[in-house]
């Protein structure tokens, strides 16, 4: 696939994040490949996926563009989405089209720097999606030459973790005002209406995970909805 055309193809579309971590009922490459297939059948135009095995399995069942990441925790750093060159090399080997890279201002493990990692990925004919949590991080990442940004980490860094339960519409709106580069809306988008609203606010595409691919959490939302005390009572 010609990666330079991917961003154009994703404009206005839905990307489904197919991730189940260890301990989750759907954990496993075979399951994630089925999730990706289901997403494609439902009309998604891209897949976001975590881990070498899951990505290889997904690549076998679909030709959709894959945004890959590897979550790994290192000592002395809270960066966990594709933190080092080691994860980047594994993603390049898996054959992803785009690499999702933590581009927050936090210190990376092994003293590695975004200034080196971004061109390294791009020199392998692979795009960089910057996962950020604030407007400044988004703009800084764009200055460093990333191909696109995603609001993935809003609410998940030490300095944005305010217990937010709704998507960060404001961050998408502000970022799209300040750049012509594609801004992906991601994180806690739980309804088709919210997804559409994000596009109306200028998002290039919408990435949805939990609300589509984590059945235990979808069930929980229904159970909580049923148990919620009626305001009229
Ligand atoms: C914060 C973090 O680690 N986010 C991860 C990034 O890859 C995934 O766990 C999320 O599922 C993904 O961002 C989609 O978001 P949501 O599941 O809320 O639709």
Automatic annotation (TrEMBL):
Q: Which UniProt keywords apply?
A: Carbohydrate metabolism, Isomerase
Provide the E.C. number(s) assigned to this enzyme: 5.1.3.9
Which GO BP annotation is one of this protein's? N-acetylmannosamine catabolic process
One GO molecular function term of this record is: N-acylglucosamine-6-phosphate 2-epimerase activity
Q: SUPFAM superfamilies, from UniProt? A: Ribulose-phoshate binding barrel
Recorded metabolic or biological pathway in which this protein acts? Amino-sugar metabolism; N-acetylneuraminate degradation; D-fructose 6-phosphate from N-acetylneuraminate: step 3/5
Give the reactions, separated by semicolons, that this protein catalyses. an N-acyl-D-glucosamine 6-phosphate = an N-acyl-D-mannosamine 6-phosphate
Family note: Belongs to the NanE family.
Name of the featured protein: Putative N-acetylmannosamine-6-phosphate 2-epimerase
Q: Which organism is it from?
A: Terrihalobacillus insolitus
Q: What gene makes this protein?
A: nanE
